[in-house]
Amino acid sequence: MPIPWNFGQYEVCVLECAVYLLSNANLAVGARSDPVKLTRALSALVNSNDEGGMLWGRWTETYPPNSTDPTEWVGSVEILRQYLLNEEPVRYGQCWVFSGVLTTLLRCLGVPARCVTNFESGHDTDCSYSIDCHYDVEGNPVDDLDDSVWNFHVWNEAWFKRNDLPPGYDGWQAVDATPQEASESIMRCGPCPVIAIKQGDVYLPYDCGFMFSEVNGDKIWWKVEKDSTMSIEYIDRNCIGKSISTKAVGSEEREDLTSSYKHEEGSAEE
Predict the structure, then answer these.
(1) Which site from 74, 95, 108, 183 is most exposed, i.e. has the minimal number of CB atoms within 10 Å?
(2) 227 in catalytic set
(3) Cα–Cα distance between 267 and 257 in angstroms, integer?
(4) Residue 176 and residue 114: Cα distance in Å, rounded?
């Protein structure tokens, strides 16, 4: 039976931890009132890949003594409390843990936020906007060239105006604290207007191209010749980004967000 995540944004230690975290950010006090800069800073601070971050990521079958398996966490508050008490990164988290913690921090600072799950989530490592698989002439995988597909991945949406962009990009913004690829040399992602992802506006800040490939990248199989030239063997245009979901307001039901992120598969718009 699923265990609901306890966000606990009103618990005593949460605001104190948020202020402490922001003291580690290279973010002027005046800039903290800008939700774009605030969410971008927090997406970096929740993970520990850069200085002052809160939570180590680890994707292994076993975990060392005196650490916590990501599946054992049931809420954000204990993670925040440990970080505030010890002033060092907490061990360990995976995508749903990073997302849960970021939701708590944003909510406690007055930014509406929610967790979003994407199934068959693409991970584009080379900014090609596609998910690429490679095989040599004998059919053996060439793993060092490959992108990957996660069976699911969890990020956040935060609601605010985008005064830094042309009109039409206000509302839900995708932001991700899970360390995947560096953005401007720091492990962070977003905020990116959800409508920009749907429209394929991959040039807009922040990280719209990466987010687009997570939900709507074509999966391409490449044949790698002995002289390292490559040719396309097959393209699947419909396998990435399935059943994009969040929890419905006021119930335990799933709210489907797929149509917010992408046009119907096979349609002219898509």
Answers:
(1) 74
(2) no
(3) 17
(4) 11
CB-based contacts of 26-29 (< 8 A; 24+ apart in sequence): none
- Catalytic residue (one of 124, 132, 147, 176): 176
The whole-angstrom separation of Cα 79 and Cα 2 is 20
Catalytically annotated residue among 95, 108, 133, 189: 95
pTM for this predicted structure: 0.96
Phi-psi region at 129: left, alpha or beta (left = phi > 0; alpha = psi -120 to 50)? left
Contacts of 17 (CB under 8 A, 6+ apart): 80, 81, 83, 84, 105
Say how far residue 227 (Cα) sits from the centre of its chain.
37
Among the listed residues 223, 156, 236, the one whose alpha carbon sits nearest the alpha carbon of residue 189? 156
Given the residues 17, 108, 115, 153, the one annotated as active site: 153
Q: Which of 56, 22, 31 is nearest to 179 (CA)?
A: 56
Give CA–CA dist 78/178, Å, rounded: 19
Quick check: is 134 catalytic? no
**3-class secondary-structure state, position 233:** strand
pLDDT (tens, 9 = 90+) of the chain, 270 residues, equals 778 999 999 999 999 999 999 998 988 999 999 999 999 999 999 999 997 899 999 999 999 999 999 999 999 999 999 999 999 999 999 999 999 999 999 999 999 999 999 999 999 999 999 999 999 999 999 999 999 999 999 999 999 999 999 999 999 999 999 999 999 999 999 999 999 999 999 999 999 999 999 999 999 999 999 999 999 999 999 999 999 999 999 999 999 999 999 999 888 777
- Active-site residue, 153 included: yes
